[in-house]
Amino acid sequence: MESAAAAYSDTNDARIPGRELPYQYVREPLTAEESDRLSNACETSGERLVVWTLPETRLRVNELCGLTSKNVLWQQSQLRVKGECGPYGSKTKVRVVPMSNLARALLEHHFANR
C-alpha cells in the first residue's frame, strides 16, 4: 500500500534531491540609462514621483498609492506603510521604510503641491 505522503507528492517538486529547480524570472534593476529614458518619458511630476520613488524606497506599488503625509516621518527620514499579511491578507502589518534624500525631496514637493 502506498503511503499518504507518497500519494500526494509532486514528482516535479524542486525540493526533492537531484531535481532541477523550475525556471523563475529574476528581476534585474534598471540601468542608469534605462532610468534616465524612463524619467524623460514622464510627462507629469506625479509620473516622475512614481518612477523615482519606487526604486529609491523599494515600496510596493499599493503602498505608494496609499501613502499620505501622515505616513511620512520627516524627522526620522522614514515612511510607515501598512501592508496586509497572513492568510488572505487578514492581518495588517506596519512596515518602516528608510527614505533617501532623493525620495524625501520628491515627497516634499508632492505633498506641498497637494
Task: Describe the structure in your own words.
By secondary structure, this protein is of the alpha+beta class. The protein has one domain: Intergrase catalytic core (hpI Integrase, Chain A). The protein is 39% helix and 16% strand. It has 5 helices and 3 strands. The chain has a 3-stranded antiparallel β-sheet, with no helix packed on it. A hairpin with a 5-residue loop joins strand 2 and strand 3. Helix 3 packs antiparallel against helix 5. The chain is extended and about 55 Å long.
This entry's quaternary arrangement is single chain
Largest sheet: 3 strands, antiparallel
CATH C-level class: Mainly Alpha
The assigned structural class equals: alpha+beta
What percent of the residues sit in helical stretches (DSSP H or I)? 25-40%
CATH fold-type name: hpI Integrase, Chain A
Could you say how many structural domains there are in total? 1
**What strand order characterises the main sheet?**
1-2-3
CATH superfamily: Intergrase catalytic core
What separation lies between the terminal Cα atoms?
69 Å
Number of strands: 3
What's the structural blueprint in terms of helices and strands?
Layout: H1 4-7, H2 32-41, H3 45-57, H4 61-65, E1 72-73, E2 78-85, E3 91-98, H5 101-112
Antiparallel strand pairs: 1-2, 2-3
Helix pairs in contact: 3-5
